[in-house]
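Re: beginner question about structure tokens

> Can someone show what the tokenized structure looks like for a real chain? I only ever see the sequence side.

Sure, here's an example I had lying around. Input first:
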Amino acid sequence: MLWRTKIRGEPAIEPQLGDFTRYHPAGYSAPVPHVPLPLHPFMARGGNNMHNDAYISDAYEAPGPLGLNPRIRSRTQGFGGYGTLAFDRSGRIVAVYSNGRGFQLELMDPDTLEESASFDLPARPWYFPLQGILPWEYIGAGMYFYLDERDRAVVPTAENVIEVIQTPRPGTDAGFQRVRRYDLSAHVVPLSWPQLDSVAWVLPEWQGGALWYATTAGLVGLVDEASGAVRTLRLEGEIIENSFAVGEEGVFIVSDRALYRFVRDAAGEIAVGWRSEYDRGPAPKPGHITRGSGTSVTLMGGRDGLVAITDNAEPQVHVQLYRRSDGERVCSVPVFAAGRSGTDISVAAFEHADAGGAGRGKYSVIAENNWGHHSFPRSRPEPGLIRVDARRRADAGYDCGVVWSSNEKSIGVFKLSLGSGLVYMYGHDDSPLATGWYFTAVDVRSGETVYRKHTGFGHGYNNWAGVLFLHPGGGVAYTTTIFGLVEMRDVATAMEVP
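And the corresponding structure tokens:
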């Protein structure tokens, strides 16, 4: 506070609660004029996968918590947490829980976090420790799933089977019901025992009738929903470690070597629409899972828009932007401190709009620095949250650069609320005794920290590269932890907060 008031000349704003610090007034941030993303016709409308939507934007229309007398609530079942939270049409939480080996689909009340139904999913094999993949590095078995337009969870399991499971209707005592299953165990990359390829990601084709999937060993597949027929394409010598995006014109996947757009050819087979290589770096960054891009693929704008990833270059990673139409790279912006620069989670991105809601040819990408020597359960990320903008010129080229940078830090998947104009992060302080954990809100326009809310002390509140989610009804944020789930909810109105 002394730095902000004496050195930077900002007005002194006292914390409203002992565990809450506000750095800017409640009205400091505002909604961001933007071009709404098209709704995938075969996915749920509000928060349907780990990264919110088919474009993997990590940007929500709904306002997140504004820090209006925020309340913290938590849930635990012992060691274990949630990979993905999705929200059905009634606003209930649909989530996959794991303790490292076992997996369970759960239905929870979005306010109380009380569980009302569950469905057991296949566990990892008994010999999974021999595979050399630590529990928090495992990305298969439903940790990524999506909710479809009929509130059905589409879940890839540890047995490489895609389960389609109907969520119970509100007001009934019915449990989850299996609707369909697609066995893909013969349609993955064969590996030597004890290694197993994993169907980790699945999303529906934009036009419907088929499911696209990708495996960690570098296989891209397509499942006909009616017949169950499967088509595949192997990316020889490449692996996939990040979730993919679906657009109207195809599927966008990043491997450890290149960014792709996949389409169907005239015979319905999987074909490469375009391929763009990037700098995969000399080795994995400290604290990162693999060599290559650490980000999922994020789409912006329409078919004339852009695709965003980060590379793994040294001494700095770059925010890389490509044309959706042909894969041509239009921007490469170095970010974070040289020698301590890396990102292992998805970026958040959107297209700005004018007063009439039309696109302006201006795009924003927010990226987080995850470089650090992490040893479970202690994370040591370097600071860094940064916004990069791209502006389309009259000649169809782009001018790109850094708009702001922040020294806030975490290693979790942050989220952006376009409805409140805030970026939400979750991280810890640097206390050597009792580690405190906090939600932090950063203004997307200025990069200034707006408020910070304490959630608790110790590893029960440790999210260890977990994911934040925003409720589509507004005013609520959740983060997964290594012991469950933490909720932050506004319980006052702007009129009640001085």
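Each token stands for a local structural state, so reading them left to right follows the chain. The chain has one domain: 2-496.
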